[in-house]
Amino acid sequence: MTRRGFAGALVALAAGLAPLVAAAQTRFTDDGGRTVVLPSRIERVMPAGPPASVDLLMLAPEKLIGVTRALSPAQAAYLPARAGSLPGLGRLTGRGNTVNLEIVVKAAPDLIVDLGTVGDTYVSLADRVQQQTGIPYVLIGGGLADTPATLRRLGALLGAPARAELLARYADATLALVKSRIAGVPPDRRPSVYVARGPRGLETGVAGSINTEALDLVGARNVATASLGARGLADVSMEQLLAWQPEFIIAIDPGFYRAVWQDPLWQPLAAVRAKHVYLAPAWPFGWVDEPPAANRLLGLRWLAKLLYPSLFPEDIRAEARRFYALFYQQEPSDAQLDELLAGTKPPS
Q1: How far apart are the first and last CA of the chain?
Q2: Angle at the Cα of 179 (from 175 to 183), degrees rounded to 5?
Q3: pLDDT tens digits along 61-90
Q4: Looking at the structure, do residues 274 and 309 belong to the same domain, yes or no?
């Protein structure tokens, strides 16, 4: 065959394959407004950050090729065995991103998914990673209040609509329940709350930030208002806390929770004197914060029961058992429930 004939044959072959290639792809418009060409079958998915790791682990764990950070034994104990063996791939997005693109290419995912805040920075990152690796990269937005829609959208993307609908209905019911029961509580009777982050308890999430969405949805008055000038996390002083005098303190760090009862600096706070300091459960993922994904749905119910016990008489142990069986596909033991809820009662 002549060179010209061979070239013609290649052109003809390409023309014949084009319809097949087109048929094997679909187009998806993500929440960044980007049109992403997807393979017809998505079997290997890489999360770009911790929120995507959690929601993918809940929704389609069999498609997940790894998590941003390998799970600790304490986390893995609350999850099916396969979850504990997933490798840590690092994170592409957010603070402390640790993945270079060679790792992404070597991992060979069919798709990269990023969940959470969608803005110019995230769109630019997604475009750059997709262009340099050739791997489709999808952005799906949504805060805690948007969890049902986020789960349904992710389920449609991954070919898991039935499971997504099951989880989304729980999210719908939780959000509706909390909203309806606190609706009649006057603003001046809603409790003031401080979220204490870090080993000293002096970092917090300001009102309206992604870190304190659960507080906002249960109608609590976050004493760390947006006047602090921060969009997310802020450092505060003991002088500010003494002026605010929150009625409740939600601790994120267990070391701080153990120390606060004896630390003389914290004793003048009414919440400490009244023993209204509670440690947010954290296994396998935080109920109130970290990461900001569907794991916080159970935290809504936990917070609502702490702040409005008469309005939420349900047994939180039974609810936790139900949530873990549904979302993590492993029911916790009685001992694990004891561990999770140990910070609901102050030390004797």
Answers
A1: 90
A2: 180
A3: 999 999 999 999 999 999 999 998 999 999
A4: yes
Share of the chain above pLDDT 90, in %: 82
β-pairing verdict for 203-205 and 233-235: antiparallel
Confidence of residue 27 (pLDDT cuts 50, 70, 90): very high
Q: What token pair was written down for 128?
A: 């750059």
d(Cα 121, Cα 98) in Å, to the nearest integer? 17
Question: What pTM value is reported for the model?
Answer: 0.90
Residue 348: pLDDT band with limits 50, 70, 90 = low
Examine residue 284 and say whether the peptide bond preceding it is cis (omega within 30 degrees of 0).
yes
Q: Is 88 in the same domain as 204?
A: no
Those residues with Cβ within 8 angstroms of residue 207's Cβ, 6 or more apart along the chain or in another chain: 215, 216, 222, 224, 225, 226
Where is the domain boundary, 116, 147, 170?
Answer: 170
pLDDT grade for 9, boundaries at 50, 70 and 90: very low
Number of domains, the chain: 2
Assess whether 43 and 78 both reside in one domain. Answer: yes
pLDDT tens for residues 234-270?
999 999 999 999 999 999 999 999 999 999 999 999 9
CA distance linking residue 319 with residue 313, whole number of Å: 11
User: What φ, ψ does residue 110 adopt, rounded to 5°?
Assistant: -80, -25
Q: State the residue range of the domain holding 213.
A: 185-344
The alpha carbon torsion through 288, 57, 319, 248 (nearest 10 deg) reads: 0
CB 304 within 8 A of CB 275: no
CA 39 to chain centre: 26
In a domain, 115, yes or no: yes
Distance (Å, rounded) from C-alpha 180 to C-alpha 164? Answer: 24
Query: Quick count: other Cβ atoms within 10 Å of Cβ 84?
Result: 16
